[in-house]
Amino acid sequence: MSDTMKQTNPEVLEKQYLQELDNSIITYLSSFRHIPVQEAMDTYYNSRLCEYIHQGKYDIQYLDYKLLVEEYL
What gap in Å lies between CA 7 and CA 24, rounded to an integer? Predict the structure, then answer.
């Protein structure tokens, strides 16, 4: 499969999107709560929000990362 086809594959794009969303949430959570990044990672990856995002529940993964942090973490 060519690189162009991989980049336009919806599953690959969704995976990349979720990785970027995870990064944005963790970085913003660290800044918003004034906590170390490691603590923000632990908080996020052990939350229901992370579970819902990666399961695609309620299409919550398409909301703004700042809203997700401020309202759900």
Answer: 21
Burial label, 49 (beta-carbon count in 10 A; 0-12, 13-18, 19+): buried
User: The pTM is what?
Assistant: 0.85
Alpha-carbon distance 56 to 30, whole Å?
24
Q: What CA–CA distance (Å, rounded) separates 33 from 3? A: 39
Spatial neighbors of 61 by CB under 8 A, at least 6 apart, are 17, 18, 21, 52, 53, 54
Q: pLDDT tens for residues 37-55?
A: 999 999 999 999 999 999 9
- CB count within 10 Å of CB 24 equals 15
CB-neighbour burial class of residue 68 (10 A; exposed 0-12, middle 13-18, buried 19+): buried
